[in-house]
Structure formats: C-alpha cells, structure tokens
Amino acid sequence: MRLFNTVRRWLGAGATRVQQGDQTGQPDGYTQNAAAYVNEDTALQVSAFWSCTKLLTEVFASLPLGMYEKGETRKRIYDHPLIDLLTLSPNSRMTPTEFFETMQLNLVLHGNCYARIARRNDGTPVALWPLPAQNVQPELQPNGSVTYYWYHDTDVHAIADRNILHIRLFGNGLIGLSPLSYARNTVGLSLATENYAAKFYVDGGKPSGVLYTDADLSTAQRKKARENFSEVVTEKEESRRLLVLPLGFKYQQTQISPVEMEVLATRHYQVADICRFMGNIPPVLVCENTGTTTLGSSIEHILLGWYRLGLNPYAQRWEQALAKKLLSPADRRKYAFDFDFDALTRGDSKSQIEMIKASVGGPILTPNEGRKLRNLPPIEGGDILNPSPHEGRKATDKSVNHDE
Asked: Fewer Cβ in 10 A, N or C end of the chain?
C-alpha cells in the first residue's frame, strides 16, 4: 500500500487524492525551485502578499457573528452558551477579534486552521485554543476516523476529531490546499525581483562588468587590478565618483540593469498574480491602480463583488464548521451560525438613509429598526410595523364600502 501511494504521489493528483495516513495540502512532487526561498515569513515581506493576507484576515475578523433558530422566523439567539464563547471570550487569553484573526491568518496562508476544543464533562465547549497549522498533521485511520497530531516542542499530542475545530479551504475534504505552497514560485519571483533591485542600488546603481586589457598580466597583477577596482566600486561613497582606469584597461558591462529587465513591469504583474492566488482580490484593494477589474467600475461595486466572491466562501466554511464541531446533534437541527455582512454592504450615508426611508413605513422595517441601523436610540411607539401602502388602500376602500 505504501509503495502504491508513493507511485501515485510521483504521478501527481495530490490535490484531490484521499488516502489512508498523513494528509498534505501541498503540491505533489514539488521541490523548492522558486527564484528565492519562500516560507510564511519571507512571503509576508512581499507587500502585495502582506496586503492580501491582512485584508482577508482583518476584514473577516471584523464581521459580527450571530446565531439564529432555523425556520421561517430565523429568530436570533442571544442566550446560548456558545454565543458567549464565540463573541465574548474564546479563551482566557484572546478577544474574539484576536481569535478569529489568528485562525484566519493560518487559513489564508496554509489552507487550514485548527483550534483545540476544551470541553466540560458534559461535552459543552468552554474554550477554543488556536494551534499553528504547520504543527498539526491530520491522519486518516483505517476505520475512517481522523486523528490530529499536534507537534508541540518535543512532544506529539494525538487529538480526537471531535476535539479539533478544523476549517479548511478546497481540497480533498480532509485537508485544504495551501495558497502559500501553490503560490511559491510567484512569491519567490517577487522576492527575487525585489532583492535584485535592492542589491543593485546598494552597489551604487552600477551594473557589474569585466575589466579587460590586451596586455599579458601575471596572476599577481590580475589579482591586484581586481582588488583595486573592487575597492573603488563597492565603497558607497567612492562608487558615485568618476572611475579612471589604468592605461590599457577597458570596462565591459555584463549585468542587465533593472530598466532593461523591466523590473517595474514585473513587479506590477506579480501584484496581480498574487491577488489571483489569494482569492481573486481586486488589485485596487491592495493599492495597485494599474489595469482594470471585472468586478465593477465603482469602488462600491468592486467591494460588493469581492464580498460575494472572496469573503462569502470563507464565511460559509466557518459557519458550517462551527455548527458541526460545537453544536450537539440535536442543536445542529435547530440552530445555525451566520456572519453579518450588512455592515460591509450598506453603502455610503446617503444611500443608507435613502434605503431606510424607503423601508420604514411599510412591511419591511419598523422605525426603531431603521434607527438601529444608524446607531440611534429607540423611540416610544417605534416598534410597530406598518402595513404596505397597498394594504392600507385596500383597508380604506373596504371601510368606505361598508359605510355606504
């Protein structure tokens, strides 16, 4: 079986393969052949990768999380123990925002995030402790169950599936694919381009080259000429001065300058490429204003498109994982979680006021619900939902006919 799995790994198809044993979210047969060494620390030094990661992490962590009762009424639940756990104190060390940021950061980088679930004797969750994704290894057991191995210092802890909250990106259903691993070449090219440009300017902005002469130099003379020239070129203050070569020596440039390599164009392209890997983030959201986007012409349309195509899939994964791992089987049939996108999609103040005016006074919003959207206190008598104008006209017509 192990030999068969090894052969399949050589042949690829690792993204969708489900096999017994350790699971991986990295490309099969992948070696470190990127233009520069890439891990999460070096990748986050690329401004586009940092901005995309920060955007997906902080914006998602700012979404209000709620719980509601399934059915037509979708009644909001405020007194369930899990509400306090998820919205007040996930553990003794973190605020809810810090917890969701930590988890989401692991998810965005590695395609998976894990939290150890601490439970009371009756099984009720009382704390959620994030675990570094790179230190957790899911393993599919022969009986079909999954055991999570957490590598902590020199110890290895085996944790049962029910005691791990695991949110994963798309993959084989057991582990998500790692954006950082699959984008390694793209990120490596960005790092190499920046390193090349930085080294070029550190060396005084002069391309490297060779000295040549028609004279037949001895080994000692060649060494002396190389040392003298290198000393002048590498000294930052000296490198700005005019070079005077010894009689008979000529200089030939061998290094391509950043302009000739089109470094600027390469860096612009790498921003768009990183945005594609990170979930089709519109480049304008990471301060890249060149080119166009297919999500809309205005920033409002661009944001709405990104919320639906970029953030909403994350929200659905979170909502379903929270219900599956934290709710009892009976509660899963009764309750569900949801992240509130209203705060992100309300538009500007003028549009919001116009929407509230159109909704209040009919069967959509009460006056107090409209005031709540503007963070205003309720007023007396503001909880009455008025019928629609059409229903009001029908009632008036019936009253007139009755009087006749």
From this structure: C
User: What gap in Å lies between CA 154 and CA 256, rounded to an integer?
Assistant: 48
Spatial contact of 1 and 20, defined as CB atoms under 8 Å apart: yes
Q: 205-234 pLDDT, tens per residue?
A: 565 666 667 777 778 877 877 776 666 555
Task: Let me know: does 208 contact 254? Beta carbons within 8 Å.
Answer: yes
Helix pair angle (184-202, 263-277), 10° resolution? 150
The radius of gyration of the chain from alpha carbons, rounded to an integer in Å, stands at 31
Instruction: Report how far residue 385's alpha carbon sits from residue 360's, in angstroms, rounded to the nearest whole number.
Output: 8
pTM: 0.75
User: Tokens standing for 58?
Assistant: 């902080």
CB neighbour list of residue 88: distance below 8 Å, 6 or more residues apart: 96
130 burial type by CB count under 10 A (0-12 exposed, 13-18 middle, 19+ buried): buried
Q: Give the structural domain span for 223.
A: 208-254
**How many domains does the chain fold into?**
3
Pairwise CA distance, residues 291 & 283, whole Å: 9
